Amino acid sequence: MTAPAGPGTVELRPLSARSVVLSLLLGADPPEMTARDLARAVEPFEVGGSTLRAALSRMAAAGDLRRTGAGYRIGERLLERRRRQDEAVRPHTRAWDGDWEMVVVTATGRGPAERAELRTRLTALRLAELREGVWLRPANLSRELPGELGRVAELGTARPARPPRELAARLWPLDDWAATADALLAHGGRSVGPTDRLTAYAAIVRHLLADPVLPDALLPTGWPGTALRTAYADYRRELARQLATRA
Questions:
Q1: Could you give the angle at which helices 35-42 and 17-27 cross, rounded to 10 degrees?
Q2: Sign of the dihedral through C-alpha 94, 99, 105, 106
Q3: Cα–Cα distance measured from residue 184 to residue 8, given in angstroms and rounded to the nearest whole number
Q4: Going by C-beta distance under 8 Å and a sequence separation of 6 or more, which residues neighbour residue 38?
Q5: CB of 174 within 8 A of CB of 219?
Q6: What separation in angstroms does the CA of 113 have from each of 77, 109, 116, 119, 208?
Q7: On the chain, which terminus has fewer CB atoms closer than 10 Å, C or N?
Q8: Domains in the chain and their CATH numbers?
Q9: Buried b (16+ CB within 10 A) or exposed e, 94-104
């Protein structure tokens, strides 16, 4: 079943054959499997041979998968999703000195689609909008903002006058995120069957993508981010062992 998203809510999306294949390949290293190995890998998730073949054909046609000499590999578009997923599990952080990254959108005359695309991109960079066109986050991530953003925005650092904890609480729904993370941890721990576990941990990694990865000093007491990342990393190792056994 699919539950509505909300604080403390476990959002579970039914797994289609496409979802199962992508989950397995996104978690594989390298993200490539032979058709025979994929057929064995999807058996515990109740995906039949004809269903798998149809899914692989559609995914290859859409560019989600690329046919190789050995089998199938995730396409270029999904390599970025895999990078974000890996970063969600193992974020690269540095000591925070009090500076905040700031992006001020300066471009005008953009259509709704372009504006929506930019918002999605800035959110994926773990920035949050303080007011229209002004995006912030603590400068505690070991990264440089993409230079091409300079075509539509001014990039820099700042030290806002508002107290940092107060500002972080305004920018992100931290209590809501933590409540949902706790619910996902509990649900993942209760999940037993292969399909139930894959469904639960797919929801966990989606939730990790929304973790703002703030400095500890700005987080509420009992923040479950590390526990959620550890649980997902443990599951990926468990799934890798199962795939190796069935290979």
A1: 110
A2: negative
A3: 8
A4: 21, 24, 52, 56, 71, 72
A5: yes
A6: 19, 12, 5, 10, 26
A7: N
A8: 17-87 (1.10.10.10), 100-158 (3.30.70.2650)
A9: eebeeebbbbe
pLDDT tens figures, 180-198: 999 999 999 998 899 999 9
- In degrees and rounded to multiples of 5, residue 130 shows phi and psi of -75, -50
Q: If you search the block for the tokens 């929506």, which residue do you land on?
A: 116
The DSSP bridge partners found for residue 75 are: none
User: What is the per-residue pLDDT across 59-117, written as a single tens digit (0 to 9) for each?
Assistant: 999 999 999 888 899 988 888 888 888 888 899 999 999 999 999 999 887 889 999 99
CA–CA separation, 55 vs 46, rounded Å?
14
Strands (DSSP E) along the chain, which ranges?
Answer: 32-33, 65-67, 72-74, 100-105, 128-131, 134-138, 153-158
Tokens of 202: 């797919």
Q: Which amino acid is at 108?
A: T
The Cα 166–Cα 2 span in angstroms is 34
Cα separation, 160 vs 111, in Å, equals 30
